[in-house]
């Protein structure tokens, strides 16, 4: 079994766990980057290779946050919430800085043939993984963009199983959004006479 196929199988387990909002996705998320370090290095996708270190660290953070993070009203799990509006502009700025920084590293220090797209998907993944760790429902929309873009990139770089996996991720991300939406606690309305 090639590493591309093995990574694909582990990736399917991961996305199923994410769909179910299972804390075990973070443990799978530690195994998957180790496999993909080898896949991406062989394919010359150096930003993807480097991001696997971030993914491993983010998986550890995500597990600890979901396990020990702030819970409301005695709940056993971190609730699914909305992406705070105050974080949208800073997140866009961080994404643009990461995209530009990764692009510069790729063109100056590697022989990457796809520096724009390799850096784009990884910069946006950085934001998506952070939003997943916080359990923001909008993380699914970020992943839809990432998954479609990376599926095309991996197909171009002749990593067919991983390309197919990311195309499937995009479909599951749409389903995941609607599943998480059903689990989202409605925002309580203020009654008329209640002070702000």
Automatic annotation (TrEMBL):
<keyword id="KW-0813">Transport</keyword>
<keyword id="KW-0472">Membrane</keyword>
<dbReference type="Pfam" id="PF04973">
    <property type="entry name" value="NMN_transporter"/>
</dbReference>
<protein>
    <recommendedName>
        <fullName>Nicotinamide riboside transporter PnuC</fullName>
    </recommendedName>
</protein>
<dbReference type="InterPro" id="IPR006419">
    <property type="entry name" value="NMN_transpt_PnuC"/>
</dbReference>
<dbReference type="GO" id="GO:0034257">
    <property type="term" value="F:nicotinamide riboside transmembrane transporter activity"/>
</dbReference>
<keyword id="KW-1133">Transmembrane helix</keyword>
<dbReference type="GO" id="GO:0005886">
    <property type="term" value="C:plasma membrane"/>
</dbReference>
<feature type="transmembrane region" description="Helical">
    <location>
        <begin position="45"/>
        <end position="66"/>
    </location>
</feature>
<feature type="transmembrane region" description="Helical">
    <location>
        <begin position="163"/>
        <end position="180"/>
    </location>
</feature>
<comment type="similarity">
    <text>Belongs to the nicotinamide ribonucleoside (NR) uptake permease (TC 4.B.1) family.</text>
</comment>
<feature type="transmembrane region" description="Helical">
    <location>
        <begin position="87"/>
        <end position="109"/>
    </location>
</feature>
<keyword id="KW-0812">Transmembrane</keyword>
<keyword id="KW-1003">Cell membrane</keyword>
<comment type="function">
    <text>Required for nicotinamide riboside transport across the inner membrane.</text>
</comment>
<feature type="transmembrane region" description="Helical">
    <location>
        <begin position="21"/>
        <end position="39"/>
    </location>
</feature>
